[in-house]
Design goal:
Elements: E1 8-14, E2 18-27, E3 30-40, H1 55-72, E4 80-84, H2 86-90, H3 95-105, E5 109-111, H4 114-128, E6 135-141, E7 146-152, E8 155-162, H5 166-173, H6 181-205, E9 209-213, H7 215-226, E10 234-235, H8 236-249, H9 265-281, E11 286-289, H10 294-306, H11 312-322, H12 327-348, H13 353-364, H14 377-387, H15 395-406, H16 414-418, H17 422-441, E12 453-458, E13 461-466, H18 470-473, H19 475-489, E14 494-497
Helix pairs in contact: 1-3, 4-10, 5-9, 6-9, 8-9, 12-13, 12-17, 13-15, 13-17, 14-15, 15-17, 17-19
Length: about 500
Amino acid sequence: MKRANVESVAAVDLGSNSFHMVVAQLDHDELRVIDRLRERTALAEGLDDSDRLKAKVADRALECLERFGQRLAHMPADSVRVVGTNTLRRMRESRAFLSKAQAALGHRIEIISGREEARLIYLGVTHAHVDDSRRRLVVDIGGGSTECILGEGPEILESDSLQMGCVRWSTKFFPNGEITKERMDRAQIAAGLELQGIARRYRSLGWESAVGSSGTIVACEEMVRAAGWSIRGITDKSLRKLRRALVDAGHVERLQLPALQPDRAPVLAGGVAVLSAIFKILDIEVLQASPGALREGVLHDLLGRIKHEDIREPTIRSFARRYRVDLEQAGRVERTALALLAQVAPVWELEDAASTRLLSWAARLHEVGLGISYSGYHRHGAYLVANADMSGFSREDQAQLAALIGNHRRRPDRAQFEALSPDLVESTLRLAALLRLAARLHRSRSPRALPPFDLFVRKRELRLEFAKGWLDEHPLSRADLEEESVQLAELGFELRVS
């Protein structure tokens, strides 16, 4: 499917407390929401002491994803983006669950970093507010983590993902549902300690307005308004009244607050403790709830990709500038790698846009490690790409990119490919073979164009053919390609050159 033909897009947010889905139609490059679904899965509550997901909770989550999958069944892969957040980041031995989850949903799931989550939250909030030029603090209390972002207009100045959330704090400090002043104090103090590391930076920059997003903050604003404690968002005074009402109730089963939804009650105490700490440590007077959140940010990010405004492109360019990549050499390798891909894509099933993008990005950054040291620079480059905060990229994206960069030269490390999701291993190996050939062919770094060549493939067999006599006239290239055939054999490929 061509991107220009996309009529609707969908975002799925696999949060620690609830799974959300939003579907929107494209109307003159604007988004018009036509459907929303939300189910509380309490994923974070399902992690045991070893961060493994309990079977009962996994089954509940998969049943939810099957329902979401029915709604998304007719939508092409490029029009749907699914992101997993804190609990999926924490989960150990998650591959089996993710495989089942993707099968149930019918779409790939991206596990995003806390920094990427913060970027998407800010994007969602920014698009929901007209006063786009003002400096604002954005706070999002999720089930497993809390994101704090300070931005001005579309630009993010500071962003942090803190390891506290309404589910995690409720489980830790109110495990049996009992709410006492002592427990609330301990929960708020613990949240304050998490915030201490960012407070000075944020307060020194300042902000004109404070905005909150997602379930905890939206629910708290609804409750304080319904109770008559505030008419202008969540104020410090109204939040203290809400905190006191929870303590007076004594237990989640006895909560009788106006506008409180039943599925919010079990995690409300933890959320209020975190929010109270945010108000105190960051000295917030009033916080307005925003209709925009992570899933809206994902939608707008997806729209950017469709309109060829993919945030990943400037991320790649920024990386190249930061580490002083030789752009001319990178461009030569990129053009040759893509020319090789064009010749083999139908046979090797690499005709999708994602394969082209991945190979292009890997070629442009294949020498990024030279900014650290020549010795083992392919390994340095792989480490940088795998561990950096790269806007727009999921963890799996970065792992694939790192595998290509780390294996574009010298003896390959098959383990880097086997660490990927099983359905990505073969395609990434094939792209690695093409990048290796392109890098070999440009080893001289000469600006002169390569001679015409043809690459033929069949399963794991490659045959590279040049014009008659060219290899005899270029013995170094012949020796390089003969050596490459030995190294590609370690990845299971047979290369013949003539």
